[in-house]
């Protein structure tokens, strides 16, 4: 009992989760003089940011977040502070159809007409309903399919529930926005935040899977799977939405005592996507061989789309690395939910073989490393990133209210700005929750 009391006196705020949001919140709180401890379930920091080194030593491989989608103020400010550099990513877009590769200039066929109708929309509705209302009939079949695939692929969203107004905000501001990659990868940003926390005396505990949070005003007792308990006046919860939506039997699920029913209901009103990211390192960038590509010059190719089972691919342009990234988003990821790594590899190679008209044996011979990350089944993530449904605005207002000035809520899913589902969203949410707690 005496020991518990000492612990209580020791820590002001427990931050649950050491992704971008949790680390940012912890840092802001520590800077303001709060005594903070961070509890993280995994054996590494960063959550959905996971940067590793390429086998061939040519750079980094991003198993999770990869791009800075536009001019994102908080991310870019933090990079600058950390002395980390980033570079502009630009290249051409290609589509494969029945073995023919052709260059395209729009992600979605009929983009201009779509943008016009989206701009004019006043009342929100799910994307699928919007398409059926404004783009009905055979003439628009290609547009409807393109838009559904884009929402599923890029936003990893379910078109049946995704908010058209939210997608409008995101798509229209991102159209033509510059894209960047961080030279040393997003992991370098996580390392920077960790260094700042260490310097500020904040302890970050890994392999500390929180199972129960007992709370009463101004007192929180957090129990981890290890049996250890931690006590503080307040807690900031930055768990991924997938974990918060999961039932109590899930490995990362946390039970709140007493329960926080208003928050639990609100979590269910935000959409959580699905994604599997595949990364294939080859001995050489075979797609740059004009002869093998039937004379097509793919030097500048960034994105490549097709109807194959793994249908979205990108290269590392402007860097000519021999790395191809395959992406299964939304319903495409659901189709492969239970696939093994070997099955995913076979699907990836079969798709590339059809797209580039190269024998599978040849591609397997060139393959030097393969990574498949099914984020939807990763126990401490359970999904890709959030998307707004037509009920999400209401949910955000509930989640932004702390519970009895004791439990505070953050994470990318709580961000309501234009950069939905991004690292920026996580960082901003982490900053805002710290400001909220400090203002209380
Ligand atoms: C494949 C993929 C690609 C992406 N690409 C991009 C991109 O290009 N650009 C971009 O900006 N964004 C991208 N994102 C989104 C971005 O990665 C996320 O929005 C952001 O990293 C989320 O940060 P967070 O702190 O909110 O959540 P997380 O990073 O998920 O952090 C939550 C933390 O909580 C921990 N946790 C879970 N359960 C428990 C528990 N019971 N106890 C203690 N800890 C627990 C988790 O292990 C995790 O570390 C991508 C995401 C994925 C999955």
TrEMBL record:
<dbReference type="InterPro" id="IPR001613">
    <property type="entry name" value="Flavin_amine_oxidase"/>
</dbReference>
<dbReference type="Pfam" id="PF01593">
    <property type="entry name" value="Amino_oxidase"/>
</dbReference>
<comment type="pathway">
    <text>Plant hormone metabolism; auxin biosynthesis.</text>
</comment>
<dbReference type="InterPro" id="IPR002937">
    <property type="entry name" value="Amino_oxidase"/>
</dbReference>
<keyword id="KW-0073">Auxin biosynthesis</keyword>
<feature type="binding site">
    <location>
        <position position="210"/>
    </location>
    <ligand>
        <name>FAD</name>
    </ligand>
</feature>
<feature type="domain" description="Amine oxidase">
    <location>
        <begin position="21"/>
        <end position="438"/>
    </location>
</feature>
<feature type="binding site">
    <location>
        <begin position="40"/>
        <end position="41"/>
    </location>
    <ligand>
        <name>FAD</name>
    </ligand>
</feature>
<dbReference type="InterPro" id="IPR036188">
    <property type="entry name" value="FAD/NAD-bd_sf"/>
</dbReference>
<protein>
    <recommendedName>
        <fullName>Tryptophan 2-monooxygenase</fullName>
        <ecNumber>1.13.12.3</ecNumber>
    </recommendedName>
</protein>
<feature type="binding site">
    <location>
        <position position="21"/>
    </location>
    <ligand>
        <name>FAD</name>
    </ligand>
</feature>
<keyword id="KW-0560">Oxidoreductase</keyword>
<dbReference type="InterPro" id="IPR050281">
    <property type="entry name" value="Flavin_monoamine_oxidase"/>
</dbReference>
<dbReference type="GO" id="GO:0009851">
    <property type="term" value="P:auxin biosynthetic process"/>
</dbReference>
<dbReference type="GO" id="GO:0050361">
    <property type="term" value="F:tryptophan 2-monooxygenase activity"/>
</dbReference>
<comment type="similarity">
    <text>Belongs to the tryptophan 2-monooxygenase family.</text>
</comment>
